[in-house]
Each structure stands twice: as C-alpha cells, then as structure tokens.
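Handout, section B. The chain below has 246 residues.
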Amino acid sequence: MSQVLMMASYGLEIVECGGAIARALAAGDSVSAAVLMCREDSVAQVRRAAEVLGVDDVDFLGVPFGEVEFHGEHKYRVVELIRRTKPDVMIMQDPEHAQHDLDPDRRVIATLYAEAVAVAGREWRLAECGGHDPHPVPTIYYMTPEKPNCVVEMGDALPLKLRALEELLSQNSFSAEHWLTHTTPEILRQIVPAWSDDDLETLGREGQKALFSALALSNGLASHSGAVLGEPYRREGTFVVDRLAP
C-alpha cells in the first residue's frame, strides 16, 4: 500500500481532493495532509473536514499569508514534512495553473513546492530540516489542473466530500463574500435558491456544493473521460507501463 501526502496551500484544498483521498483510504493507503497557510480560527474546521474524509494526521505549517518565501525557514518546513512522512504519492497545486491565478502567494508556492521536493531527496540541510533521512518523492499529482491527464472516479465518494465541505464555515462565508463582489444576489439565487441575503454561510456552503458537483460532472459524464463523477489531476512526468493494457 502507498503513503499519500496531500500538500494543501489552503485548507479547502484537502476537501477539493476529497474524492482521491477517500478512494485512497478505501484501498488501504495511508493518507496524511498538511496545510501551508491557515488562519487560527479555521484550524479546527479544517481538522474536522479532514476527519470526515478519514484523515486524522494534519500538519499546519504556519506560513503567513502574503509572505511565502521559497528559501529559508518556509522551505525547511516543507522539506521536513516530506522527509518525515515519506510519501510515495504527493498531491499539490498545479504550477501551470498557479501562474495564471491572481490569488496571493500561489506563484511563489508553486516554486516553493518544486524546490522542496527537489532537495528533499538529497543530502541537503539535514539538521535544519529535522534530522530525517533524504526522501525522494517518486510520484506527484497536481490538483485542479487546466490540462488533466488522469481522472479519479469518485462517484461513491462525492457525498463524503460534500459532507466535509460543511465543516469549513469560515471558508464558505469567505467564498460567498467573494462571489458577491463579482455578481448579483439574483444570479446567485439561481445557484442557491434557498439563500437569503443575510446568510453568507448558507450561500457559501450550498454554492460550493453546487460547484463541486458541477466540476465532478464536467470531468465525468459531461466529458469524454469515461468517468461518471470525475476528480481531475495531472501526473508529473511520463507514464511508464509494461504493456498497453485496457
């Protein structure tokens, strides 16, 4: 069985990858998660969301928003995590997508992760990174890519993913506030008919559920992927197979 590390920049990303996480656990893999940046009032919510998916091991690396650096202490924290958890499979942000995303920190985070993975498998700063032995990461999957090359069928895991989303009260309210700066309440009510103007939590929660379900369909039945409800990923590197199997 495999050791999987979900390296989340923000807590919501654990839930975004909830289908793959739930399927890995169901197959007997071990899954741990880490969050690079998380506000103090959201830590307990992210822990509960991870527990819904079956992940009991969540590290919070405590990197401040808007201050991510890909050298020094922040790099040490990620390298220490990789060497300590020794993943066979690592899930993280897609660097191609990050270059076009104007959310704070994403472009720097993509470089931070790449640099940390590169040196984690070498004799680099062993003492500063917890004293663990080097650990190369053999397989990397990028989440929510613009150009996926594989899809996880998660039909039986979608309800669990949506249940985990309910725990992220702060994130859901933040998302609702963000949507309201880009469109009108009338349009948002087409997505969440039961929403009332003063209930940001409901708008965010139910709106995110609608988005996650739509994305699963768009990468499943609405696509040519062969999945019913799909969660897309881009695997780093070339797939090596011993034969062309069906």
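Note. The two ends are 23 Å apart (CA to CA). Compare this with the example in section A.
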